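ENTRY TYPE: paired fold submission
RECORD: A
CONTENT: sequence, then structure tokens
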Amino acid sequence: MIYTVECSFADPVSEAEWNDFYSLDKLPALISVSGFHTSQRFKALSRGCPAYLALHSIDGLDILTGEEYRRKGGGNFARWQQHITDWHRNLYGGIDRAPAIAEGEYLALSATGPDPLVRLGLTPSAMRAVAMEKVPEHRWLAKVERSAGPDIEQLPVDVHLYAPMTAQLRNEHHASFEKER
């Protein structure tokens, strides 16, 4: 399943420090939670959506309600919470693992259907909201090569483009466990 966390940040003075905290402290803590498999952060390049997106591949909703998740900072941004705006969390089924988006790639998301992504020459994967806010109910995501990517100014209104802020982190304990199985 794919756990999404989206938000914007309202304090430009501390935004860089917050991004360091999220990327260097929070993401590594979350990926160490049993049931988390991958985590990656993104910054929106298009308008009309929260500025930041985190995609996590997890086993299911019970991971997010567990003690280990809470103990390692899940659902809590500590001293940054007061500056977080437009915060949304969803759990999507339909895809087991989020694609790793490399430095030379973008992530494209659409909530209106696969067609806008297909028209851009992309191959979308479908997700359906199964828990948390459940809005948007459906989403389609696709990996985009930057060199072949669409002009950001010419994107359809219903497509949002994101650049990776971090490499995709993997829970190495789970990776080695899955190989043994």
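RECORD: B
CONTENT: sequence, then structure tokens
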Amino acid sequence: MSGQPNPKYVQDATAAMDKALHHLQDMLKGVRTGRASSALVDNIKVDYYGSPTPINQLAAVSVPEPRQIVIKPFDASVLTEVSKAILKSELGITPQTDGKMLRLQMPPLSGEQRLKYAAKVKEMCEEARVSMRNVRRDLNKHADAESKGGKLTEDDHKKTLEKIQDVLKEYEKKLDQVQATKTKEITEV
């Protein structure tokens, strides 16, 4: 077989799957592990004059100790709103305040919490995997249509489908690695 895969489909598959992987990695930053990380509060939105605003745009976020996050708002009047947003979030931590900043003490995770967070990571990774498979399905449909329309030869069509599948396998391996790394971070004591 001497067909050539259509490079546009391969580029589209790579771009879309890369986007799904990066989105997953961003979302996983918000899942608690045994250590404090400023990324835990990145996805928490605060009602700031009627518009949902990420905490890191309203405050300086730092990690002075392995189990502590310090949030110092640029505008002290927003302190209570930041505190409310953290309480509503899935972090499960009550912030302590001194009137100028918030301190989040990260208690060690119990065995049950570790299992719960590991299951959440698995679920998020599965959603990303489904998203990637949907990309493959959609691109395969486009390639099928072009083949029926005579724009792709039979050999080129077959090579294109194979190459899209290869890209999917490559990204599923990356996804498995991301899942294993995050799960290990969560389950480490």
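NOTES ON RECORD B: The helical segments are 7-28, 55-58, 79-88, 111-148, 154-187. The mean pLDDT is 87.
STATUS: closed
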